[in-house]
Amino acid sequence: MPEAIGFVGMGIMGVPMALNLVKAGFDVTVTNRTIEKCKPLADAGATVAESPEDISKRTPIIVTMLTGPQAVDQALFGEDGAAAGLGKGKLVINMSSVPPSYSKDLARRVGNYGASFIDAPVSGSKKPAEDGTLVILAGGEADQVERATPYFEAMGKKTIHCGPAGSGSHMKMSINLLLGSMLSGLAEMLAFGEKGGLSREVMLNVVLAGPLSNELFAMKRDLLASNEYTPQFPAKHMAKDLKFALDTAHETGAWAPATHLAAQLYRMLVAADRGDEDFSAVFDVLRGAL
Amino acid sequence: MPEAIGFVGMGIMGVPMALNLVKAGFDVTVTNRTIEKCKPLADAGATVAESPEDISKRTPIIVTMLTGPQAVDQALFGEDGAAAGLGKGKLVINMSSVPPSYSKDLARRVGNYGASFIDAPVSGSKKPAEDGTLVILAGGEADQVERATPYFEAMGKKTIHCGPAGSGSHMKMSINLLLGSMLSGLAEMLAFGEKGGLSREVMLNVVLAGPLSNELFAMKRDLLASNEYTPQFPAKHMAKDLKFALDTAHETGAWAPATHLAAQLYRMLVAADRGDEDFSAVFDVLRGAL
Amino acid sequence: MPEAIGFVGMGIMGVPMALNLVKAGFDVTVTNRTIEKCKPLADAGATVAESPEDISKRTPIIVTMLTGPQAVDQALFGEDGAAAGLGKGKLVINMSSVPPSYSKDLARRVGNYGASFIDAPVSGSKKPAEDGTLVILAGGEADQVERATPYFEAMGKKTIHCGPAGSGSHMKMSINLLLGSMLSGLAEMLAFGEKGGLSREVMLNVVLAGPLSNELFAMKRDLLASNEYTPQFPAKHMAKDLKFALDTAHETGAWAPATHLAAQLYRMLVAADRGDEDFSAVFDVLRGAL
Amino acid sequence: MPEAIGFVGMGIMGVPMALNLVKAGFDVTVTNRTIEKCKPLADAGATVAESPEDISKRTPIIVTMLTGPQAVDQALFGEDGAAAGLGKGKLVINMSSVPPSYSKDLARRVGNYGASFIDAPVSGSKKPAEDGTLVILAGGEADQVERATPYFEAMGKKTIHCGPAGSGSHMKMSINLLLGSMLSGLAEMLAFGEKGGLSREVMLNVVLAGPLSNELFAMKRDLLASNEYTPQFPAKHMAKDLKFALDTAHETGAWAPATHLAAQLYRMLVAADRGDEDFSAVFDVLRGAL
């Protein structure tokens, strides 16, 4: 019989992810700072706990899916935090997106209680979370990742073991860095072409018909064609992620010139009070229409 | 009955492209500076002419597929050049890759003879040329592009009318600029990830499993994984293309920061005497292994 | 009669600065974590205190000259910290180099005790500290800067009131950013010239004979000419300062492209284990001799 | 008795330079496409010739001071060009600013006539030309540079022998590259400081009081303080010079990242129709006020 699992954080991502665990037949206990947000899970058959501490006393595996380091710290080590219930045999899985240096530190602090740790940020947002098609980027000991795999399979379509604790976060950051530079690269190409008299619609057709075509570009096509940047992933989040990537480059000694460039471009959007628009608005920076 | 077509330039691209015209049933006349290279076409049923001048006197449509501006100039305006046979009703189609400013100038000079002009560089190399799956990027008057379309359909899978004369070349350059920045972006991501302890194989798996996946990255996967950069598209050609793009940015006032960056990176390969390797060798620049 | 002054931090800078206060006839009390380092001051006639707390109880003005935020925090708010003696009428002057955001926060925390605050980092190192020729970059209320001016005049040749608290630190960071980009700019010019066959000695002569000549370039001439980068200001410190500048650019929305570039160049030195050399070693990065 | 000298090009620079030769007692013959512009020289005692050919038949040394490669080509190799009078023992000195690759080519072409060649662009503009305080950057054979030195001494305060033919032009370009990056570096520092609340006047004071102070910054102080960029050296010329520098970097394999950056910044001014303002207007680019 599979181990019971606890889930802290009933946000946009947490609710569908936990629901998929319930649907897969696992014994799921959930909690959230605003406890009302647990209702969809209660309706689906999950147990609702008062606090992370409460969860960690009941279940051997505890997932956190929260907004960032501060919220994770609060959930694990704050008042009523999960740490109170940690010990040998317990496994903490942080699926929140956090910097790799924080993940490594978290692994150490959880380890101090005798418990195991996996960092497992996801690639994909609300829709894939609902559909159970997330890609899960896991960092930790191989046997613990294996232990977590049945749960990951309920939430995602693919689990990739990236290496020791912290590797999941580093992989997520690496992907985001490529995301940022690919989209600003496309925007630059469109701006360059327009200066030479080309129509952006025709350029998008050509790119999407050839070997450079990819889902990201297809997804952004209408936003770029219309200059209406309805937020799917806000520019301010990209700016923040790239800032974290620069911090990491500084720590590890990676060169990262395109990341430096992209960080500046998305920051210019934020500085122009357009950080809430989709990050494809970087097109306006590059065509001089800020 | 379709118009007869002439084809100047029996190189790696020219031979298969002209063969596809013959196979499609067109009346094809070919020539080449080294006349022996016309043999496969003669064998297939094409007429062989002595010179471009000879061609332009026989056929209303003349294609040039040569190594660059100098060779095109020679073929059109040199001794025995096609210009001698140009006049009202004739159509010159330059499919060689050349800078947009050269294409515009060429349109003007061909126009001086009363003839029409299309610039139509292709996206795709030897294999697609053989398979007739090139993408043809055409610039010129709409009626002339329509006139040329049956021939383009024999050589390619798709023809895109990009705008007036010069637009095809500008489109080709825009695509190459994106090609250069996307591949150096992937290389940077891999170098960044490795500094954080990730395996490049795992990273390539993750990228190719997600929304950023594209044919270019898939094609370069083994080269990047092995650091054996068997040339598909040599770095020195990318360096040259990006230099032309910077020239064009200077002329048109486009900003193009990522193109400036990529131009430097590929140039560093050339400066390190590695310009003959595939342009994916830019990975070695970014991981500090030059 | 002038107010008595306390001085916390008897390091390479602190000792000569405090000695100049004694020589100017002020009533000076000093302390240091390792109390023995106060000996030169005791010999010169200064009072030695046991702790920062001890100092702040005796003197209305307290200077801190320490290695960074952590040491300053310890000196002011740690056990035996100066905060215990703070109150209305007291003035804390932090002359240590710290990020502007830390300075602003420090002003607020000192203000919570009813005391006043100036941040006053210096431009210049050991020699100017001994000669009393430092330039003092002061941030704070005008009347408090005026109150501190007699003491600044004993330690430096010039005091510049940069604005409210935090402005001194921001000015210091701005100057360092220019320092970093000017020197890497000179290095790039030399590398560019050498590729064209010019002698670096001749280039340095030309630069130093013309309108671009400045003390920094003159000071680095021999290091650049010889490729022997005896540390005057280690590359790792420049890399750190530029990283702080990028953090600040991210916070304030400044663009700062040359700072991004310089940050990468100096970081490459650190990544190549050459962070202890003088920052003029950036020349080796730019001439491809890392 | 010194050799007679001819001077082609009576522009803003040429007139005062040739006048200084006359004042120094040399036997000077001048010419200009618009012959009326030779009047000040005739008044001062110089001989006026009809054409460059006429000059080269009279004088063993011929100076050209013209607007660029095209004008130099016309003066030397055009109709009535100086080439007709060239031969063994003659010396051509081109003082016009041209790309190094052009200078090297020119040396070869002049050499074909058996004559010697020096490229000798100057550092300094109208005022130093009048005052005879130019810095002369000479490239060529040592004995020829020695031969030219008495004339250079009449026109400038300093002659620097930079190496073989072409070296003068490469030195000029290297200096201009540093000029461009230093001024955009200062502009970036001011923009960065302003975002942190500093006054630009105070920042300029601090920079000009310290080891980074130089004549260039002093000269641009008022323009930067007022955002009134009265042209001393127009941005479009800097943009063009940096474009030539990028061309040269591409040819020689120099890296030149700051030059790439500066080229983009000045080009943005030109693209915004502000190329006629002083190049210090790059401040408006960096503070987001384009």
TrEMBL record, chains A, B, C, D:
Where is the 3-hydroxyisobutyrate dehydrogenase-like NAD-binding domain positioned along the sequence?
A: 166-285
Superkingdom of the source species: Bacteria
Identify the species of origin. Oceanidesulfovibrio marinus
Keyword set, alphabetical order? NAD, Oxidoreductase
**Entry annotated with the keyword NAD:** yes
Q: What residue stretches are annotated with the 6-phosphogluconate dehydrogenase NADP-binding domain?
A: 5-163
Q: What is this protein called?
A: NAD(P)-dependent oxidoreductase
Question: Matching InterPro entries, A to Z?
Answer: 6-PGluconate_DH-like_C_sf (IPR008927), 6PGD_dom2 (IPR013328), 6PGDH_NADP-bd (IPR006115), HIBADH-like_NADP-bd (IPR029154), HIBADH-related (IPR015815), HIBADH-related_NP60_sf (IPR051265), NAD(P)-bd_dom_sf (IPR036291)
Please report a single Pfam family linked to this protein. Answer: NAD_binding_11
What SUPFAM superfamilies does the entry give? 6-phosphogluconate dehydrogenase C-terminal domain-like, NAD(P)-binding Rossmann-fold domains
Question: Which residues, by range, are in coiled-coil regions?
Answer: none
